[in-house]
Q: What sequence folds into this?
């Protein structure tokens, strides 16, 4: 294994734009939920004439679909990701719109038969309801409560209040309060394994909301403690939580 300093420097220099995770190949792994979101998304896109993908990242997951409906839009708030999504999807007829967090969606009422999202930042149920056509569906995979908290709490300490956020039952209730009927709700807890400290640095640079203000210098001692464990053959094991939710207007 490379030295601690080399692993950190390598991870700090690596590109974290977009929503791909190929850089972690051989260094970290994560189980996937059993329902196969990307395949289910592609099936639903093939059955509609209009769709909107929210928080599309760099368009990686949406881009896996073999085809798109005649009207296909995607939104993304982070400018580097919005550019990547445009580069990946525009030639296939997808209109990528850069938005702002918390702002209303820039679409007319009842614009889409299908609204989708993989790991939305914070679903705005009222806006989702507004842009869906009557009879249309929201189909998404959300991050669940306390996801990757074994890793996050290594740096931030216990977070008892934050552990209760993103509860799927609460989200289903919020969807219903906005006028949607939840037709499917499934949950999964998936094992994550990090084998070297570079993988930890890289993921915390990419998922900036996990440890706000993270830098390798600021958290040098916590990273060094992880590195020592990993060199003894003890990878960092955490668990991601996910839920699949489908709701009808």
A:
């Amino acid at each position: 294994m490379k030295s601690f300093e080399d692993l950190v420097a390598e991870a700090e220099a690596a590109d974290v734009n977009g929503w791909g995770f190929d850089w972690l190949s051989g260094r970290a792994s994560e189980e996937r939920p059993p329902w196969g979101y990307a395949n289910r998304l592609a099936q639903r896109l093939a059955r509609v004439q209009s769709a909107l993908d929210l928080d599309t990242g760099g368009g990686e997951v949406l881009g896996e679909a073999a085809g798109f409906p005649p009207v296909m839009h995607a939104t993304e708030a982070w400018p580097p990701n919005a550019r990547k999504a445009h580069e990946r999807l525009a030639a296939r007829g997808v209109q990528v719109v850069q938005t702002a967090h918390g702002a209303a969606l820039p679409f007319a009422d009842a614009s889409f038969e299908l609204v989708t999202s993989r790991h939305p930042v914070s679903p705005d149920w009222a806006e989702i309801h507004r842009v869906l056509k009557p009879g249309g569906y929201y189909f998404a995979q959300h991050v669940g409560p306390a996801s990757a908290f074994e890793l996050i709490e290594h740096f931030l300490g216990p977070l008892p209040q934050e552990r209760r956020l993103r509860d799927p039952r609460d989200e289903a209730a919020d969807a219903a309060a906005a006028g949607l009927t939840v037709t499917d709700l499934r949950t999964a807890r998936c094992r994550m394994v990090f084998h070297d400290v570079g993988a930890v640095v890289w993921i915390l640079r990419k998922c900036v909301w996990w440890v706000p203000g993270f830098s390798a210098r600021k958290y040098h001692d916590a990273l060094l403690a992880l590195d020592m464990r990993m060199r003894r053959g003890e990878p960092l094991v955490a668990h991601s939580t996910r839920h699949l939710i489908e709701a009808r207007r």
Residues 50 and 71 are 4 Å apart (CA to CA). The helical segments are 4-13, 37-45, 79-89, 125-131, 149-156, 168-177, 197-206, 220-231.
